[in-house]
Amino acid sequence: MSPDMIRAAAEGDVPEGIDLFIPPLYDIFWGAVMFVALFLIFWKYVLPSLKTTLEARSDGIEKKLEQAEEDRNEARALLEQYREQLAEARSEAAKIRADAQSDRQSILAEARAEAQEAAAAVTERAQAQLAAEAAQVRATLSRDVGRLAVELAEKVVGDSLDQQRVSGTVDRFIADLETATADGTTR
Amino acid sequence: MFEGTIFEFTRINLVQVIMTVAVAAFFIVAFRNPQVVPRGVQNLGEIAIDFVDKQIIQSIMGASGRKYLPYLATLFFFILALNMAGVVPGLNIAGTSIVAIPMLLAVVAWVTFNVAGIRKHGFLTYMKSNLFPPGVPAPIYILLTPIEFLSTFILRPITLTIRLLANMMAGHLMLVLFFSGATYLFLDADTVLKPLGIGAAAMGFAITAFEILVGFLQAYIFTLLTALYIAGAESEHH
Is residue A42 within 8 Å of residue B27, measured between CB atoms? Predict the structure, then answer.
């Protein structure tokens, strides 16, 4: 043992034997003072402070939960709304497409009718023209045939009527006719 | 200081005051400006109080024990702080290693559980349920009642006192033994014996770690038993 401890024991600072279990009054006094002081600090200050904090925390958590619930409901409503709008837009698009389809049909039919009409008009006009040309040709032809017939008759009458000459005349006439026709086309 | 009066102040009293002030300061700082989201020392303080609340009060007394939180928290942290003084360099003695503190706390516990029981059931019912437990043949009470009286009203405070006192005092003696032994071996012993000082110092170190465990455990046990006694006094059946 160190000298300090031996001295302390000699002075009676360190209790021995039954004295271990008999506390001096001042020890009890100081112990009580400190215990009561600590108790008051816990009772009046620390634990109320903790309680308020914990309550504030619980309130905060509750509020957050409520807020989250609200937000969720709001989001759900929005989603529902968007879905409705989307469905609406889709049906509208389908309607527009159907309308366009029917419009196209009618436009096509109209265009076709118009084209047919135009085609018919063109045909008619062509036919009329052809008819006119045919009439003109027919007139020209009959006039020429008449004149040629007269010429032929004049030539037949003017020459002798022997067989050989007649046939020579006819041949010549035809040759003339051919040249005349050729001239006529060039003319 | 003030020798011979009730205000006499020794080294152990000083140690007790220092540790009390330290633990009070810790909790005051922890809850000086409490935040909803705890930070740093507030976290620590909340965990500490939560330990008393959950591990001691809720597990023993249930929700109704909540009103004893100020008392039991004070008890636990007071004992813990004074115990820890035994391993704090410079203080080196547990504030609970003199009989006054354990005895004082045991008397307070004794008064508390008896008052709790009497207030709950009335004096006669409380005494009857403690001294005459139901369900035994009448003659047995001749034997049982003195035993019950002794164990409940005499032995409880005494065992509380001695358990704490002896543990802390023994820890102090072990620490003194090994560290003064190590000092002697290093400084005064023959050269051959000096290496043994390392062993003594190592043992002292191990005992220090052990003392931290014991200091915590004894604070826990003392508070737990107090809670148990109060719960027992308040409960309907014995």
Answer: yes
Please, are residues A60 and B36 in contact by the beta-carbon 8 Å criterion?
yes
Per-residue pLDDT tens digits for B145-197:
999 899 989 999 999 999 999 999 999 899 989 988 888 888 887 777 888 88
Answering whether pTM is above 0.90, one says no
Of B24, B69, B104, the CB nearest to A31: B104
> Is B217 in contact with B76 (CB distance < 8 Å)?
no
Could you tell me the sign of the dihedral formed by the alpha carbons of A57, A59, A63, A69, in that order? positive
pLDDT tens-digit series, residues A101-115: 999 999 999 999 999
Chain B residues within 8 A of A42 when measuring between CB atoms: 27, 70, 73-74, 77
Stated as kind and residue range, the H or E segment containing B50 is helix B41-51
Q: Between chain A and chain B, how many beta carbons pairs sit less than 8 Å apart?
A: 118
Q: CA nearest B161: which of B70, B97, B85, B231?
A: B97
Closest residue in B to A45 (Cα) is B28
CB contact under 8 A, B74 and A43: yes
Contact B18, B36 (CB under 8 A): no
Instruction: Write out pLDDT tens, residues A134-167.
Output: 999 988 888 888 888 888 887 777 665 666 777 7
Distances (CA, A) of B20 to A2, A124, B15, B127: 29, 126, 9, 36
**Pair A20, B89: CB distance under 8 Å:** no
Output the pLDDT for position A187.
47
Longest dimension (CA), chain A: 201
> What ipTM is given for this predicted complex?
0.85
